[in-house]
Amino acid sequence: MAATALQILTGSGERAQAIRTTLDEAAAAVNAHYAQVLSAVITMKNANLHRNAFGFSALRDLLLSQFDFTYATAGSVAAIARLSTKFTLLTEAATTGRARIDQVAYGVRQLDKTPAMRLFALTPFREAATSPFDPEVSCATPEAMLSEYCAHATFTELRAHIDALAAQLADQEELFEHLGEQALQWIEVGEQANGLWSLSGELSPDTGRLLDKYLKTACPPPRQSEQDNDGVLMAQPNRHAEALHQLLAGYGTSPQAATRHGHTATLDLTVDIETLQGKDTGRLPLLEGRPISVAKARLLACEAGIIPSVFDYETGEAVELGRALRLPNTALRRKLELEQPEGCAWQGCDRPIAWTEAHHIAHWADGGATVAENLILLCRFHHGRIHTPGWSVEKTGPGQALIVHHEGHESAPADIEGGCGCSGLAHRRGHGPSRGRRGILPHRALPRGVGIGIGIRTADQGRCGRAHQHPRRHQSGQGQIASQVRHRGSLR
Q: Residue 468 and residue 400: Cα distance in Å, rounded?
């Protein structure tokens, strides 16, 4: 019995060793091929063949488009090749196969973040340092030491060493006297798998103070009256993110903003008019070349930072609608702000007027005019909510709007356009002289979970004249809950 168990164990150990040998040989072969690829790409780059022969300025795009490399491999090879003339020791470690290309690519990217880091990496130590992995190897520069880490350390150890190099910059004052603090700052922006974007970096003291002052100005501390139903104030980091969006969106559409090919920092939305109107065309709108939903396109088409282009599939012509047909001009925007001075039209929202967007009650793609009678101002979040199924908007006067949710009709887009008026939740906005009018009711608090405001319309009193059954409220005898938007005074 014991002999049988030992025989089985020995057999498993032999198989594991055989698999290890196979994987080691395969890994060595793969890394050797990567080193050959990198050498070829560097030769191509130095001879400018990627431009002259292949017609690509970006090495990564060339490798992805013309060859069957993975995204990660193409990115690593391109990063090393682009910086091969600057970081020669790291490049040599990769082309000789002494270090993996992913380790070296990470190293050169980190060294290339700032002018200060580049200079520090190439500046000789006062005394040569011994490699922690081989006492026979002497490293004259931080780059040489980093190449040792790329060759022998784990990724975690490599990252920790680079972080330590960055921390040592503070002790190199004499090295950076001519560079200034700007040489130390950097920002990285990257799209994540979930569609959100990550932002990280370090700013010079002046730039950091400017950004901090802007965020504090745009996002003052929340007031106690802005607590949610659980008594918690709004998260300040979330408010900061929205403030940054408004800063970029506002400056990006300014005539004084930086331009490229005559355009400021705007996003391109391409969609045919039938699709934008909600017709079943089988086509999806494209935002910067990527497909998005029709609902998202209708929302984005209202924003100043978006240039919508209608595509005629019969003629193949792209026709830019431009801003004049869809955005209020300066005078009209000023009129809307005077009539709605306290900001977003949504109950409980404290977003300032500068952060609001003009919402077409009848969408301009459906023939809605860009006039005051067809526009209300909403913050970006609530503007997006209005563009989800189940909502309709009625403008009842200057600075006044009734926003109605169609309970039980979430899957009926026709109700949104038709505005049948049955409501599970309604928001009414009024201005100064209207506070005492019938239907513009004073704000009062309701128990948690019930909502804000008081009943305005019962289930059988919809504007369309039809009876709409809402079982929960109908059985209890309650009318529909209508949330009154808090008073916004207008300037007269």
A: 25
Instruction: Please state, in angstroms and rounded to a whole number, the distance separating the CA atoms of residues 403 and 416.
Output: 11
Residue 204 maps to a domain: no
The DSSP symbol for 284 reads -
| Residues 106 and 147 grouped into a single domain | yes
The per-residue pLDDT for 149 is 96
CB-CB contact of 82 with 59 (8 Å): yes
**For 394-443, how does the pLDDT look when each residue is reduced to its tens digit (9 = 90+)?**
888 887 788 877 765 443 333 333 333 232 333 444 433 333 322 222 23
Name residues of the chain where pLDDT drops below 70. 1-11, 170-184, 220-234, 251-268, 277, 298-327, 348, 364-367, 407-492
In a domain, 421, yes or no: yes
Return the closest-CA partner of residue 120 out of 87, 148, 97: 87
What SS3 class is residue 34? helix
Per the DSSP assignment, residues forming a β-bridge with 269 are 287, 308
The pTM of the whole model exceeds 0.70:
no
Helix (H) or strand (E) holding 212: helix 205-218
pLDDT at position 324 is: 44
Tokens linked to 177: 């006297």
pLDDT in tens, 433-484: 333 322 222 232 322 222 222 222 222 333 333 333 332 222 223 333 333 3
DSSP string, 154-169: -HHHHHHHHHHHHHHG
What tokens does 413 get? Answer: 């887009």
Residue 240, burial from CB neighbour count under 10 angstroms (0-12, 13-18, 19+) = middle
E strand intervals along 332-465: 356-360, 375-379, 391-397, 400-405, 425-429
Residue 408 in any domain: the answer is yes
Question: Does 335 share its domain with 467?
Answer: yes
**Residue 165: which domain range?**
25-177
Residue 361 CB coordination number (10 Å) = 17
Where do we find the tokens 């282009």? 309
238 vs 345: CA distance, rounded Å: 20
User: What is the H or E stretch that residue 186 is in?
Assistant: strand 186-191
Residue among 341, 348, 269 nearest 304 (CA): 269
Residues 311 and 381 in one domain: no
Task: Judge if 304 and 409 occupy the same domain.
Answer: no
Residue 66 in any domain: the answer is yes
DSSP letter for each residue of 307-362: EEEEEETTTTEEEE-TTTTTS--HHHHHHHHHHSTTS-SSTT----GGGEEEEESS
**Ramachandran category for residue 261: left, alpha or beta (phi over 0 → left; psi -120 to 50 → alpha):** left
Kindly give the pairing relationship between strand 306-312 and strand 375-379. Answer: unpaired
